[in-house]
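Batch manifest line 125
LIGAND: heme C
JOB: complex structure
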Amino acid sequence: MTRLLLSILLLPAAVLAGGTWWTDPDRIALGETVFDAKCMGCHHPEVKAFGPSFRWIASRRTPAEIYAYIVSPAALSRERGYASNSMPHIPLTREEIEAAAAYVYSFRSGRDGRGGDPDNGGAGK
Ligand code: HEC
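JOB STATUS: finished
ARTIFACT:
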């Protein structure tokens, strides 16, 4: 149900952008400002803080999964393997959610990512 809803929600954005929103440099840059304002208190991009590092997340989740979690952390924390949910729902515009998700995903390891050890900074679930 959540997945179906999500794919319906995500489709127009990808089409409008004429490509993939999660690789758009403008969105990634906006995502960094969202991070500074709304996520930095609990997340560090590269090492575990209160929440898992973005590098850890990006190496395990798709952009759509990251987007979905920002929209509804309480609904998804169990299926992601967390014993409890500590991340609140943060009111953001759709553009800000895409931007934040693109920023998180930009820390993925591998050829196009920023590299590094994906196991460094994980949630240890
Ligand atoms: C109050 C602390 C807090 C804030 C603020 C917060 N997070 Fe989180 N986040 C967490 C914690 C803790 C988890 C681990 C799961 C949980 O407790 O819900 C998490 C999990 C996540 C996950 C899912 C990880 C997975 O396993 O799939 C994503 C994605 C994420 N956060 C992104 C963000 C973004 C982007 C922001 C800012 C818009 C943000 N978080 C703000 C604490 C926070």
